[in-house]
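>> Question from a student workshop board

For tomorrow's exercise we were told to take the sequence and the ligand below, predict the bound structure, and bring the output to class. My setup keeps failing. Could a helper post the expected result so I can at least see what it should look like? The ligand is KG4.
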Amino acid sequence: MTRILAIESSCDETAVAITEDGKLLANVVATQIAVHEKYGGVMPEIASRLHAENITVCLTEALRQSKLTLEDIDAFAVTRGPGLIGCLHVGLQAAKTLAALYHKPLIPVHHLAGHIYANQYAGEFHYPMLCVVVSGGNTELVIMKDDMDFEIIGETLDDAVGECYDKVARVLGLPYPGGLPIDQHAKLGQHTYELHKPRMPHDTYDFSYSGLKTQVINLVNTLKMKGEPVRMDDMAKSFQDVAIGMVVDRAMRAAKNYGVKQIVLAGGVSANSYLREEMKKAVEHTGIELVIPPLWCTTDNAAMIAKVAEKLYVRKVFAPLTLGVDPNWRISDWDKFD
Ligand code: KG4
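>> Workshop helper replied:
Here is what the output should look like for this input. Compare the format with yours to find the bug.
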């Protein structure tokens, strides 16, 4: 029997999960959204401090839920990157302390591998597989030909798609995080504002979102200067069509060119209703299976970190206690952490 305790603290959620032979015994998430909402985005210094305040509370609650004690745990897993440096440090120091005290292995987990493997709580993987990783900090297309085998074929050259949603929402006076409110407004609107996709090579799998963000900011400012109202629903719909259109276009082109059996959506933006609908339509009659994560695992949590850690435990991918965080860790380097 293998029991893993996993810690996630890469952004604005402090989370602890415990699994026993793959079964989720505890899944505790303390979100800081209400605090960062005031600033219209995550304040890194405040986020780190709140992780430090919340981590022991989450640990205690996870142990209570699982009815286990720390002596029962076989390995301590933690998100090592990518993420906000100060935030990652809190989780890592907690995991290192526990690993040292209880003489158990320390397992370093890549945050995006976690988002991808969260889908195993929804279904099995069939390779080759395309992972559409769309979150607040990352936008990547990743091909997996086997378990824990990641090849990045496309990524954002500037802003992440979720970051773009959050910045556009801020300009429109919508609350943080902006993804859900824009998604909700877009359902009521028409694509009447002219917004363009970035000019990029037609065969690229890369993304760019900063130009789209600037177009919205300029358009909103121009309307305000003219004294014209911003039609919120139409603006949200016009923006969402372009932002999500880029993801669907690249994902489907990659899926066909790489001959994948399955596409999985991962990360916070995979909660987007329009992305889910458009991807469902796009895979119709292609024979490609689409895996859509349950909403609870689209946001940051430690259950997804535990899922990856189980695999790393079997492979004995353990780190020394000198391990440091890596805010820019690439998913293809998931087993390199010296
Ligand atoms: O995965 P996540 O917690 O961030 C990182 O780990 O980087 O995702 C958070 C992001 C935010 O930018 C949020 O606005 C976005 O996911 N998001 C959405 C939706 N729900 C959350 N974006 C578009 N549509 C949604 N329904």
